Amino acid sequence: MRHKPIAAIAGLGFSELSRKPIGTSRELAAAAVEAAIADAGLKKTDIDGLLINRSPIADPDEVPLRLQNDLQLRNLGLLAAIDSEGSSAVQMVQYAAMAIRQGMAKSVVCVFSDTPVKASGGGDSFAIAMPLTGVEGWERQQGFLGASAAYALAARKHMARYGTTQHQLGAYAVSCRKWAALNPQAFLRKPLSIGDYLASPMIVAPFRILDCCYPVNGAVAIIVTSVRCAVNGPHAPVYIHGMGQGHRGRSGLHGDDDELGSGAQQAARMAYKSAGVVAADVTACQFYDAFSYVGILALEEYGLCKPGEAGSYVADGHTAPGGTLPVNTGGGHLSGFYLQGVTPLSEGVIQVRGAGGERQVVNNDLLLVTGSGGCLDYHSCVLLSPHAALH
Amino acid sequence: MQTLYDEYDKEFLAFVGNNELRIPVDTKTGKALGLHARSWRKVTGSTVQWQRAKGTGKVISYVEFHRQYAEDFPIPYTVALVELAEGPQLLARLAHVGDDEPEVGMAVSARFDSKGLIFHPFSQ
Hints:
CATH superfamily of the domain at 7-118 and 215-231 in chain A: Thiolase/Chalcone synthase
Pfam families (chain B): OB_ChsH2_C
Number of strands of chain B: 7
Keywords (chain B): Plasmid
Structural class of chain A: alpha/beta
Number of domains of chain B: 2
Order of helices and strands of chain A: EHEHEHEHHHHEEEHEHEHHHHEE
CATH class of the largest domain in chain B: Mainly Beta
Distance between the termini of chain A: 6 Å
Pfam families (chain A): Thiolase_C_1
Protein name (chain B): ChsH2 C-terminal OB-fold domain-containing protein
Strand order of the largest sheet of chain B: 3-4-5-7-6
Largest sheet of chain A: 9 strands, mixed
Organism (chain B): Paraburkholderia aromaticivorans
Number of helices of chain B: 1
Oligomer: heterodimer
Strand order of the largest sheet of chain A: 3-2-4-7-1-8-11-10-9
Structural class of chain B: mainly beta
């Protein structure tokens, strides 16, 4: 035996997920927490930690700390909102695991909730000016609007440097759709060919609409407990073996650094070291892939492909059902649903539990789950396993 | 979301409003700082000052907008990430000239129009 887990995930709960308005983020958060507590076989009095991840584009009051009162959680020894954009969901699990390891809490519920899809649709919620240059208001003045533009800019650099192609971006979207077809919870399940992809509307070149995530309204909650507590729960424990973060900011825009090397590399090194494993030990991945390119880049940044080789790796089918390294087995952000960091996290829990149904991966020994925020600024990851000991 | 400007932002935007592209330069070393490196402004004894940039550079990356997000930006239009001759990188609109398609590595020069800074392809 080489390694003992840090903590374990014992509960997973979803609110209703929808492309229509179904309630406030606060209401949906409460519903997800209730579901997670029930899933873990716990009572509210067992919960002594609450961590909240709010959407960075939503008003903080949409999911206030007062959620505690909505849920009648009266025994909290840990309460915080984690504000690191798309890396926050994974960070919540990390901080919960550390608090439990230190004896500060025993059962921590981590919740993300968002309602970006209004009656008028979903896309405009993300038509924000991402502050890339360092001068507030500059991007708006230049018409550089939408998160898709920021990521498309990074993708074009990768394409210019390594020859990554539009077909390879499309292959990633097609791979995710194949997984989504096997997932009853996924929102986009209709078969997708590379021809369909290439015929889809361009949004911000090089990104087509099918390179972009599919936002939904909803909430997901996860309960982190001690290993001892998880073993006594109704589900097989999901052990947390490795954790890492890396934050380099917008390094590429300083003119003295390389944007293509993000903090994900640092997060990967830390996680692999803490679990006593190497990248080659990872058997499946759940990436934060708000855009097709992000999934391709993650394969390289987390050491699963050499720089510049992930595009062809994906195009060769390695990440699709039946491939050597299943990636985003619920359909991910592109075809499953976009609820920021809890999309990959929830699918990671489902796969480690062996509850993936038709999409269950053959080898769930070690899953890499990532979070990514800003525009490749903030990174976090965890390594999950059904095994209490990694050999 | 509300944009919170501080004096640093206002100064840079005012330069552009006066058809000037200025960047922070450490007068002691002659090194230009990226626009992200804003901490110098309130440092006592800082040797960094805004200085006029040459206005030339090369395209590092670019995107073409095919979806309209704002009324004052009709599609299609192109925004490029440009590495200035002094080193720092800056996002700005890239003008289409004739049938030329934008390319990574393309030489550009800064000009100004009613929306502010815009890069044009530049024949060296």
